[in-house]
Amino acid sequence: MDNLNLTTLQRGQTMVNDVAIDAFAAGFRGSLLTSKDMDYNEARTIWNAMIDRRPGLIARCAGAADVVRAVRFARDNNLLVSVRGGGHGIAGNAVCEGGIVIDLSAMKSVRVDPQTKRARIEPGATLADVDKETLAFGLVLPTGINSTTGIAGLTLGGGFGWLTRKFGLTLDNLLSVDVVTADGGLVKASETERPDLFWALRGGGGNFGVVTSFEFQLNPLNTEVLAGLVVHPFADAEKVLKEYRQALEAAPDELTCWVVMRQAPPLPFLPAEWHGKEIVVLAMCYCGEIAAGEKAAARLRAIGNPIADVVGPVPFTGWQQAFDPLLTPGARNYWKSQDFASLSDAAIDVLLKAVRKLPGPECEIFIGHVGGAAGRVPTEATAFPQRSSHFVMNVHARWREAGMDGSCIGWARELFEATKPHAVGTAYINFMPEDEGDRVETAYGANYARLAEIKRRYDPNNLFRMNQNVKPMAAVRAA
């Protein structure tokens, strides 16, 4: 790591002094990568293939001390900073252009205490890493639906999935964090220590520092759940969605059912004649006793005349990975999201019109079913803003060729605009693309002013701005 000579690492228009860079490298326990290193291109590549940025330096941290050094180096040299956990975020903020990436992907430890039912998790861990350790003790942390997602970004932005209705959001199960703030200090935040910072970190994303360790409360879970897919022809979509909506009115917290509308992939349980045709999928999970789950899911499974019903007892770890093949890295992705208090007839009509105009075979609309335990937390209790929404829509445009950018992005934006009259106005920041910076204040609603004030105290110069950025309060007043 001697004499890195980072000619591309810039502070504004001024090159950073090589002596300062070498001093940073000398005390760094992890590895530092520049464009001259063989691993550089792999290290700057993230899940969304639309993002192609070339940082001046990638600091792969081995522990909290490395993170402290990296933050201080970036601060002292006025560098653009991005923070990488799992590298799965749709906006691509894990990688910056010309600055420094604080890469946490090597910090993957997951330590479970089965007596206290708590886990200490480092920010580079994926959901698969977490599930493997916690479920070995019959415990679980409610997270997302794609096992390659990183725990850090998921938690800081919210975190919802199959267990949210029963156990709350991922951030609702957070007990404390160790975090490196913009002044380069390593501090602890919890309900009793720096409670304002702890409040902001639960939903405020990466705006307030770099978390080096998360402490979570875990929940008991049987290793098997009742889960699977019920697939319907798109011709029946209106009837299916309206009966789906009615069936959920009496759903217990243990039951979650999401809707996916897309062209059918070549799933082995679907007849070949359906491959490539539009379908409506009810994806459900019951996280209690199997017999009770069969009763709770019966009304959903009785809807219409499905093409296939493959709901049954499965290991939860397997169900957590069921959608991974449809979300592999390497594709171009653009998302738009809305929150709905209810799934109105008018909203359903808009969604169905959009499915009839899918621009590619991997593009889809999914409706996440939330509420339950997550919806009973007061809006002001955490920075996470949308406790009242019962459904979250993600317009997921996904394609392979750059020549399809216009049609796929245009389709997502058109549907987003068409659903605005039926949405509540908040947004899940983890689903927001990089061009939605002007939506951040609206997305946080009544919580934004408090976030901006906490940002002023902990990051007044907006060092951590590669995110869905909350501007420090002074900057907000001056705007």
From TrEMBL:
Domain FAD-binding PCMH-type: 50-221
Keyword Flavoprotein: yes
Pfam families, A to Z: BBE, FAD_binding_4
UniProt cofactor(s): FAD
This protein's UniProt keywords: FAD, Flavoprotein, Oxidoreductase
Keyword Cell inner membrane: no
Family (UniProt): Belongs to the oxygen-dependent FAD-linked oxidoreductase family.
Name used for this protein in its record: FAD-binding oxidoreductase
Native source species: Rhizobium brockwellii
Taxonomic lineage from the root: Bacteria, Pseudomonadati, Pseudomonadota, Alphaproteobacteria, Hyphomicrobiales
